[in-house]
């Protein structure tokens, strides 16, 4: 990667860091001044105000991260991957995984006083699968077309049914995406859940959402009645969790350094060295799909597999990732991250940077001409692709994009990048009128690949349609034996390595920093902080 690219990244960070020194708008976090104590949590959160406050409909990680404080789940996933009781005291897996019977706690109430019961589970799951809800990720995690219904067996017993065994369900049921809103809210304010707010975002969680100023802050207040947390967790020891929305990472670090924030998340690797020495840095690798480029094979030049394969070999991923992310993020070799069950380690080092191979593949594909700019041509057409990206784009990913464009240009491939506001992005993403787009997607279960690669997958940005692959993905969802599932997902990963629908670049980690006056903070398997067990002071 050109050295001037690296210097531009540092320069942008330095300017933002100076701006952080003048930060004065964040709420203070002096426990004594707050009575029962307050923790201020600084997050990126830039897109929450765009109707992304509802985990049942939003696909953003940040939505599930902040609303975990409000929305409890049927089960809790422990650090070793096992499941323990939460809102469900116990459960049975029936019919080889085609049915799940949950026995619910009898002492749980929502923040509005409504009892939590089997009818509440049914109301929430019915809402998720209702086409009018326009849920995508949550509906997929609830089994998609495999979901056959939720039955109220009695007041505190509920059965969730699928048309065939669906092994990822317990993991899905442990997430905030399948967490529970008050049935009263679902009856009267369901259309307001995407915007969120007090008396709208009403769950059973350890905190109640009491204030929300879009693009500024969210205030969660302790639920004094909370006694039903996982592993015996009761009500939090502090009263207020204030979430400050600070899109600029350097500003979040400035808030931490000045004592105006107690916890910050989503720190880029190049700012870790700016965290005060007595603070604790937690870096937890995301399981799931690494940050990747999705090549649209039904639109433009990527219809040709040789062009897709050349694209993957032309990028010096190792150098770019190492230099831009300061060695904090590993280069990704597969469409599953290394911490995800089912990861195929045999793919490591299988397709290294090789511009000679890229050039040969492009020659074979007929792109043998060159124009005045050195860009390849065929039949009078330039070898051009258009990459659409969702704003805001962090400095490090912008630098990575520059490196990718530079490497591709060296083999005569012109990659044009457009950074778009959400509305403009969706105008192109919906009808799939782009060549490339990008994201990473966290998830503990490899079934997440179904939504990205199945013909009818709601995140199938590459527009893949392969009956053999569809069958593999269906097998992965229905098979309960983990070794058999691992074999299925190894085949899926190897298919993508050859087909080149998705180009994995790096596996991010969720980097958080915590001030020394906060103790007992825990993290879920995605690296997201869980505040119910924390203390401050």
Summarize the structure.
By secondary structure, the protein is α+β, with helices and mostly antiparallel strands. Helices cover 28% and strands 23% of the residues. Residues 83-446 form the Solute-binding protein family domain.
Which features does this protein show?
single chain, 537 residues, alpha+beta, D-Maltodextrin-Binding Protein, domain 2, Dipeptide-binding Protein, domain 3, 2 domains, seven-stranded mixed beta sheet, four-stranded antiparallel beta sheet, 15 helices, disordered N terminus, peptide transmembrane transporter activity, Peptide ABC transporter substrate-binding protein, transport, signal, SBP_5_dom
CATH topology of the largest domain: D-Maltodextrin-Binding Protein, domain 2
Helices, by number, come to 15
Amino- and carboxy-terminal Cα gap: 46 Å
How large is the radius of gyration?
24 Å
What is the strand arrangement across the widest sheet? 8-9-10-1-11-21-12
Note the beta-strand portion.
15-25%
Number of domains: 2
Main location: other
GO molecular function: peptide transmembrane transporter activity
Signal peptide: 1-27
Organism: Microbacterium testaceum (Aureobacterium testaceum)
């Amino acid at each position: 990667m050109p050295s001037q690219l690296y210097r531009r990244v540092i320069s942008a960070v330095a300017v933002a860091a100076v701006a952080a020194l003048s930060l004065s708008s964040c709420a203070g976090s002096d426990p004594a001044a707050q009575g029962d104590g307050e923790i201020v949590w600084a997050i990126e959160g830039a897109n929450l105000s765009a109707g992304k406050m509802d985990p049942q409909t939003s696909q953003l990680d940040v939505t599930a991260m902040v609303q975990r404080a409000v929305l409890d789940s049927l089960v809790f996933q422990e650090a070793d991957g096992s499941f323990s009781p939460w809102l469900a005291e116990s459960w049975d897996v029936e019919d080889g995984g085609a049915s799940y019977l949950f026995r619910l706690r009898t002492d749980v109430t929502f923040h509005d006083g409504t009892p939590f019961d089997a009818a509440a589970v049914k109301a929430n799951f019915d809402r998720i699968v209702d086409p009018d809800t326009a849920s995508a990720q949550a509906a997929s995690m609830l089994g998609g077309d495999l979901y056959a219904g939720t039955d109220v067996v009695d007041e505190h017993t509920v059965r969730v049914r699928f048309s065939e065994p669906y092994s990822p369900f317990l993991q899905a049921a442990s997430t905030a995406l399948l967490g529970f809103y008050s049935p009263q809210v679902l009856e009267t304010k369901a259309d307001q859940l995407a915007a969120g707010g007090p008396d709208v975002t009403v769950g059973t969680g350890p905190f109640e959402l009491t204030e929300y100023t879009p693009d500024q802050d969210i205030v969660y207040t302790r639920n004094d009645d909370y006694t039903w947390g996982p592993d015996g967790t009761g009500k939090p020891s502090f009263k207020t969790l204030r979430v400050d929305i600070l899109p600029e990472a350097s500003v979040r670090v400035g808030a931490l350094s000045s004592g105006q924030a107690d916890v910050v998340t989503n720190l880029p690797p190049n700012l870790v060295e700016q965290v005060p020495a007595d603070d604790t840095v937690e870096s937890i690798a995301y399981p799931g799909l690494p940050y990747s480029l999705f090549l649209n094979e039904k639109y433009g030049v990527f219809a040709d597999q040789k062009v897709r394969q050349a694209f993957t070999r032309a990028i010096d991923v190792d150098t770019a990732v190492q230099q831009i992310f300061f060695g904090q993020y590993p280069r990704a070799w597969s469409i599953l991250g290394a911490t995800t069950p089912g990861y195929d380690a045999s793919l490591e080092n299988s397709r290294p940077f090789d511009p000679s191979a890229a050039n040969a593949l492009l020659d074979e594909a007929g792109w043998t001409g060159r124009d005045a700019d050195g860009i390849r041509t065929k039949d009078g057409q330039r070898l051009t692709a258009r990459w659409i990206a969702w704003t805001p784009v962090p400095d490090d990913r912008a630098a990575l994009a520059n490196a990718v464009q530079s490497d591709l240009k060296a083999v005569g491939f012109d990659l044009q990048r457009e950074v778009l506001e959400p509305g403009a992005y969706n105008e192109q993403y919906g009808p799939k009128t782009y060549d490339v787009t990008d994201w990473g997607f966290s998830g503990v279960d490899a079934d997440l690949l179904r939504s990205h690669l199945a013909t009818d997958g709601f995140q199938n940005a590459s527009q893949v349609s392969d009956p053999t692959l569809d069958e593999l993905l269906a097998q992965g969802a229905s098979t309960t034996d983990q070794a058999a599932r691992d074999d299925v997902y190894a085949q899926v990963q190897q298919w993508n390595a050859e087909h080149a629908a998705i180009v994995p670049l790096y596996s991010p980690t969720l980097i958080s920093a915590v001030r020394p006056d906060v103790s007992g903070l825990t993290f879920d398997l995605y690296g997201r902080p869980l505040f119910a067990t924390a203390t401050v002071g």
